[in-house]
């Protein structure tokens, strides 16, 4: 019996035809997909012209070499049309930025919707007017890039723009009234510029505006009493810091009161006073349930009237800043006035620092949601009452620079969420062990920062090992005294330990530091402490800052420093150290970016045995010490790339063993010492890029070096330079051959050969791409599923969230 056959087996030709159609469909899809992501030549050329005009020392455009520009850094293309729709080349601090010129070739990017060139360096550059030709632009950020001149009025024609940030530049002149045409704008930021004149009332046309930032524009004024603000019904963030005429009219405050969605209002440094509030008409505040952040710092309020006013205008206030005013009430009265409204339940952060508030710290537990209270730089005095209560939610209590006395009440130790406590620069006088015991409730598990420095606290150091989260402990400039007990330990997460300028005695051993693995900054100076670590002790931490001045570290050089590989500042002066400085110490100075080193007032010796000193690429800015001439055994000295000043030591020739000397890239002046010609073994010399002058001393040795060893100085002459000398001075019209390259190896022939090699390699690769379809697919395969409008909305949302966090 014959088994039944399938249709394909009965008709093999039909099966093959079906398979062929499937393959053709797949190939067609691949080809069509390739066409969709194929680069547009005009746009690629526009990007290359833009790159050619940019100075890119940090390699931000280093990926702009491959054929597919959609894969270049900062570029985003449409998956449907292959047009460039996003160009994000924002800088990132001093380590990553561009400069140069913004080339007009960007006009070719006709479908561009997102352009971010913020945090770059474009001094002496105006904002290009041609940016207004990018009609599809929705997001434009040119902030923090050193732009100057006037804002182009043409930007007002970008009808699709939703986000515009020109803040933190040197822009001057008036705000263009044409900005009132940006009907879709949601975010406008012009802060920190040199703008002047009236704010154009046409901004009232921006009915979709959510955020308006006009901060620190000291010559800017609000026009028409601010009536135009009434149309901004979508406004949630309004920052008008430093506007010069807000105190001349009450209209703007009545207008703002009608904004229904306002969440953040900042009126910093606007010369507002009690009189302004008292003379204002009573208004119904439409934002009474929406306003959560209110910043009135830097004004001239003096009395409790401001607190009564604030309590009446909003019921959901979260952040209130009245710092740097002239408030003179006592603290209990201020808190009493503020707690009468609903604010006492909603307030999370209250800043009253830098005023003239009197009294002492009183009960603040009525503010049931309070997380941060800032009372620094006031006139609080007396003891903190023992029964004072803190909110259970409190995280930060800063009462620095007052005149508080005594100690800390036990109730502070029950603040289970307390993170930062700063009572520095007061007149606390209790014993430290008692203060710490009062903090040893649940607060010892949460506390991360404890600042008690600059008081009159006495007693000795207690055990801190139970403060398991403490990262910063500042106890310096007190009256601590007595012996440090051998069994105490410091917190395991401590990063900063400052106990200098006290009268502590005793010996610290490796046991005291045994649990510490995160310590970075250590200052025990100006006590009567000794450090006695076992010979092979290896700390679990790496220090950045070390100050052990006047501690007893000796008699031998502290070997544990050999384990420290990151320090940039070290002071072990007057530390009873004697003997020879080990070679590993000098090696560390050459490997690390040490900025300050002090080993003075010890009994060190043996420097004549030192062979190599390399302190290059640091920030030394003094004269070269003449004592260096005594290092007769030194073979190599490298002090290049610093800011050294003064003359080269005149008796440097006493360093007869010297084989390599590099003093380049400093600010040394004067002539080259004659004694330098007496170092006959000198094989490497670089004195370039200083301010040296006069005749190069005559000797077979000094004339044997290349001209580059002396180039880029103020006025050197004589062989090996071609600049001649007359009476030891350069001629007036020297015929000097200046080498602009740092190394003579890079001559013209080198660059020609490099160019030929590059061309051959380049066209080998490009030829393969042009004629081999598989290579084309691998280069042009790019997929992007993000929708354009969503991208812009996310960018705006992230910007607002970051500001809210700040």
Automatic annotation (TrEMBL):
Keywords: Cell membrane, Glycoprotein, Leucine-rich repeat, Membrane, Receptor, Repeat, Signal, Transmembrane, Transmembrane helix. It is found in: Cell membrane. Residues 104-376 form the Disease resistance R13L4/SHOC-2-like LRR domain. This is Probable leucine-rich repeat receptor-like protein kinase At1g35710. It comes from the Eukaryota. The keyword Cell membrane applies. The keyword tRNA processing does not apply. The chain crosses the membrane at residues 750-771. Residues 41-78 form the Leucine-rich repeat-containing N-terminal plant-type domain. Residues 1-33 form the signal peptide. GO terms for cellular component: plasma membrane. Gene3D superfamilies: Ribonuclease Inhibitor (3.80.10.10). PROSITE patterns: LRR. Belongs to the RLP family. Coiled coil: none annotated. It comes from Vigna radiata var. radiata. It is a single-pass type I membrane protein.
């Amino acid at each position: 019996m014959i088994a039944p056959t399938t249709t394909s087996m009965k008709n093999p030709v039909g099966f093959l035809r079906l398979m062929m159609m499937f393959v053709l469909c797949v190939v067609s899809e691949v080809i069509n997909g390739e066409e969709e992501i194929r680069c547009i030549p005009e746009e690629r050329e526009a990007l290359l012209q833009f790159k050619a005009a940019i100075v890119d020392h940090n390699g931000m455009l280093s990926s702009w070499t491959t054929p597919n520009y959609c894969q270049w850094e900062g570029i985003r293309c449409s998956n449907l049309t292959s047009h460039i729709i996003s160009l994000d080349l924002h800088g990132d601090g001093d380590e990553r930025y561009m400069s140069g010129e913004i080339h007009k070739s960007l006009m070719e990017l006709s479908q561009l919707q997102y352009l971010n060139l913020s945090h770059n360096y474009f001094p002496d550059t105006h904002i290009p007017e041609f940016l207004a030709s990018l009609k599809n632009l929705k997001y434009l950020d040119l902030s923090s890039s050193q732009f100057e001149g006037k804002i182009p009025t043409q930007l007002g024609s970008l009808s699709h723009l939703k986000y515009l940030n020109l803040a933190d530049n040197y822009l001057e002149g008036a705000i263009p009234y044409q900005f009132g045409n940006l009907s879709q704008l949601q975010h406008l930021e012009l802060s920190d510029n040199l703008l002047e004149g009236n704010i154009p009332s046409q901004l009232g046309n921006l009915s979709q505006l959510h955020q308006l930032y006009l901060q620190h524009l000291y010559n800017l004024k609000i026009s028409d009493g601010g009536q135009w603000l009434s149309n901004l019904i979508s406004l949630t963030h309004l920052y008008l810091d430093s506007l010069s005429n807000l105190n001349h009219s009450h209209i703007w405050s009545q207008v703002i009161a009608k904004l229904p969605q306002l969440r953040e209002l900042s009126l910093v440094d606007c010369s507002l006073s009690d009189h302004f509030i008292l003379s204002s008409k009573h208004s119904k505040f439409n934002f009474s349930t929406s306003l959560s952040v209110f910043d009135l710092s830097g004004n001239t309020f003096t009395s409790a009237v401001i607190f009564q006013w604030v309590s009446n205008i909003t019921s959901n206030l979260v952040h209130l800043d009245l710092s740097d005013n002239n408030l003179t009430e006592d603290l209990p009265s201020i808190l009493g006035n503020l707690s009468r409204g609903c604010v006492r339940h909603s307030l999370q952060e209250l800043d009253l620092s830098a005023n003239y508030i009197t009294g002492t710290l009183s009960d603040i537990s009525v503010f049931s949601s309070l997380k941060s209270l800032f009372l620094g730089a006031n006139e609080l005095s007396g003891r903190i009452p023992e029964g004072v209560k803190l909110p259970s939610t409190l995280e930060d209590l800063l009462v620095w620079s007052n005149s508080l006395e005594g100690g800390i009440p036990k109730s502070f130790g029950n603040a289970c969420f307390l993170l930062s406590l700063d009572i520095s620069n007061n007149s606390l006088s209790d014993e430290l062990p008692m203060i710490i015991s009062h903090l040893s409730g649940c607060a010892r598990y949460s506390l991360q920062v404890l600042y008690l420095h600059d008081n009159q606290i006495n007693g000795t150091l207690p055990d801190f090992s139970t403060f398991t989260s403490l990262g910063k402990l500042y106890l310096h400039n007190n009256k601590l005294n007595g012996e440090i007990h051998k069994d105490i330990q410091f917190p395991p997460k401590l990063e900063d330990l400052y106990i200098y300028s006290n009268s502590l005695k005793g010996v610290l051993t490796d046991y005291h530091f045994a649990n510490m693995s995160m310590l970075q900054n250590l200052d025990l100076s100006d006590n009567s402490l000794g450090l006695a670590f076992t010979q092979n002790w290896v700390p679990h931490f790496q220090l950045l800052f070390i100050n052990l001045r006047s501690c007893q570290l000796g008699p031998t050089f502290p070997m544990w420093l050999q384990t420290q590989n990151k320090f940039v500042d070290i002071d072990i002066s007057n530390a009873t150290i004697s003997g020879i400085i080990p070679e590993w110490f000098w090696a560390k100075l050459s490997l690390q970016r040490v900025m300050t080193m002090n080993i003075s007032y010890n009994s060190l010796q043996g420097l004549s045995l030192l062979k190599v000193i390399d302190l290059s690429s640091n920030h030394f800015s003094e004269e070269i010490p003449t004592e260096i001439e005594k290092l007769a055994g030194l073979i190599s000295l490298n002090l290049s790339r610093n800011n050294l000043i003064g003359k080269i030591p005149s008796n440097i020739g006493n360093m007869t063993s010297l084989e390599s000397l590099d003093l380049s890239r400093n600010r040394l002046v004067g002539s080259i010492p004659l004694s330098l010609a007496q170092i006959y073994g000198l094989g490497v010399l670089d004195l370039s890029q200083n301010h040296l002058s006069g005749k190069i001393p005559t000797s077979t040795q000094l004339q044997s070096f290349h001209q580059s060893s002396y180039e880029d100085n103020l006025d050197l002459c004589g062989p090996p330079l071609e600049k001649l000398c007359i009476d030891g001075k350069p001629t007036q019209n020297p015929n000097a051959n200046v080498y602009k390259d740092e190394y003579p190896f890079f001559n013209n022939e080198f660059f020609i050969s490099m160019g030929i090699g590059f061309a051959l390699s380049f066209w080998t690769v490009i030829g393969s791409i042009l004629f081999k379809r598989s290579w084309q697919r691998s280069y042009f395969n790019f997929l992007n599923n993000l929708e354009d409008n969503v991208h812009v909305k996310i960018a705006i949302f992230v910007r607002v969230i970051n500001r809210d966090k700040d």
